[in-house]
DNA sequence: TATTGTATAATTGTATACAATTATACAAGC
DNA sequence: GCTTGTATAATTGTATACAATTATACAATA
């Protein structure tokens, strides 16, 4: 049996069930292209690879099916669907609009502390950008948007945005490795913050939409869409 | 053991696994308020009620957790989260924007046949409205939006909209039982169709947004939000 | 009474067993 | 050579067994 990553992590995070960990591992692997479109996911094989029985693997695959990342044919098996370039583009377009909604709603609910926190994140991000520590920049970008999603104070909106965020993770890693893009992104983040500060819903929405649209444009310009 | 609904349906739909059927049954029951917020979902109990073992129930509950309808605490159990009135409102707001996107994209991809089909649906709907057959009207409304979602030709957008659609099913049943609302809804549907016919993306988007906004307003006016 | 400890029961988490379905290999017949 | 039928293997679907965790009941103690 292969040396087993999941059980090792068990010691560190005994909070999560094996099922959850298998799910996250498989999702990660699908989104990162470890499994490619059409690959078949055999319960037994995956279970052996991860050192668990079929049960948690099955449960994980069922969840992946609900997310649309996997296709299950009853009594036959599961195969990887994954995300095409068009899927990613569509997600960005949806995200643009919903990010706008987020910013608009954040205006309504933002506390002074939230806004300070947003500014801190951007400050730190610019610092790490200067030092060219882009993993940190990505992390902080995640924090920025995560906080924004929380500020909107909507369980459902958060839920959708969190899903999108996972889907886009791989490509965001690329966009936020460009010094120039990070600089621009920071400016756009500050525009959003200022709009929220001034309690200007319309402006906040437009800034947030523009931010995502610019991200898309950047991806286009630098040909960062995944080759299929 | 209770008389068992799931196995009976087995004869009719042997395509779906028990797991799928348990999932759909539980989701339906949660959305319809059969299970209320906070109710605990015991695998053994539900399995006995439905005449299946714990395994498919477990898998179904895991899926419901991913949808956010259920909260699982490891080693403790699953409890119903369900949708609050605010959740429903937020979903409508998101849907308004994404429905707009749908209409916009549908303009790009709509075939003559699609448009004809849309018109047929509205014609039929108005006919059944006249006859006060509102279950039929609901069915056709579903068809209209389903087709629109398909016309947008986006797997991801369809996926999100399909989820929303399930979530809103209960309340849509109420709004489309009002003669007046159905009449207005039909007009709005025709506006959307005409915009698509004229290949006017901007107008199509705005009409679709307005359609959902009007739906929301109708719900407000008639106090159709669920009492909590 | 309130609290704590402990034994018991209930419940979940995981693994495994068995049934049902599907895939594969290969020989028989054309 | 190609199809078809059949036996075998592989895989999934479901149920169940067992382990681990959590809840419950209740007695002992302050």
**Oligomeric state:** homodimer
The number of strands of chain A is: 3
Task: Round the Cα radius of gyration of chain A to an integer and report it.
Answer: 19 Å
Number of helices of chain A: 10
Q: Which two chains form the greatest contact, residue counts included?
A: A-B, 31 and 31 residues
Q: In terms of structural class, how would the helical and strand content of chain A be classed?
A: mainly alpha
Q: What is the percent of helical residues of chain A?
A: over 70%
Instruction: Provide the residue-averaged pLDDT of chain A.
Output: 92
> CA-to-CA gap between the ends of chain A?
32 Å
Shape of chain A: elongated
Summarize the structure.
The structure is a homodimer of 228-residue chains. By secondary structure, chain A is mainly alpha-helical. Helix content of chain A is 73%, strand content 4%.
